[in-house]
Amino acid sequence: MLTRRLLLSTALATLVISNRLPFAQAADDAGPVSPVQDTLPGGFERSPGAPEKSFPLMRTPEEWRKKLSVDQYLILRRGFDEMEAASPLFREKRTGTYKCVGCDQELFLGSSKYDGGTGWPSFFMAVENSVESNDDEPNEEGGRELHCSRCGSHLGMVFADGPPPTGLRFRVNGTALNFFPLNPSRKN
C-alpha cells in the first residue's frame, strides 16, 4: 500500500529529475534550494525532520547540493524516503560498517543488520551517540524520524518493534548510507 508520503516523494522526485523545481538547478547556481526555505541563521540548512538545533557539522544549502546527488539531497536534506527495496544495501549481507553519506560518521555495524521485512535496510542497534530521533509524536506508522547526530541528515525512521536486545528497528534509506565491507574481496 502506498502511503501519502511515498506518493508525494515520488511525485516530487519526478519533478526534480525533470528540472521543474528550483532545487534541481545546477550545483553552482545560486538560486533557491526549494520553494520553502528551511535554513538556520547564517544560511545553514537542516533536514526538515531534524530538531531545531545546530549540529557539529553544518553546511550551507549550496555546499549540500555540491556534495550530494539529487536522490541523496531529497532524502538527506528534504526528508523523503526511497522506494521500497530500491537500495542494493537492502540485500547486503557482508560484515562491515555503514556510514552517513552526508558526513562519513559511522552509524551502524553490519552485525546489527537484520531482515526487518520492510524493504529497507534494518538494524536493531546504532553506534553509540551516532543517531537521534525526534521526541515528538510518532507518525501514522508508529515511527519517529531518524537523523545523523553529526550533520542532522535524515536517515529514515526508528520504530519500537525490533528484535532483542534493544527492541528497536532502525529502518534506514540505503541512499543515506555508504557501506564499507570488513573484507572487500568477498562478494555479497
What does this entry look like structurally?
By secondary structure, the protein is α+β, with helices and mostly antiparallel strands. It has 2 domains: 4-76, no CATH class; 88-181, Peptide methionine sulfoxide reductase (Metal Binding Protein, Guanine Nucleotide Exchange Factor, Chain A, Beta Complex), CATH 2.170.150.20. The chain contains 3 helices and 9 strands. It has helices at 4-17, 61-67, 70-76; strands spanning 96-100, 106-109, 113-114, 122-123, 131-133, 144-148, 154-159, 169-172, 177-181. The strands form 2 sheets. The chain has a 6-stranded antiparallel beta sheet, with no helix packed on it. A 3-stranded antiparallel beta sheet has the order 2-1-9, with no helix packed on it. Strand 1 (96-100) and strand 2 (106-109) form a beta hairpin. It is globular and about 40 Å long. Mean pLDDT is 79; it is low at 1-8 and 14-42.
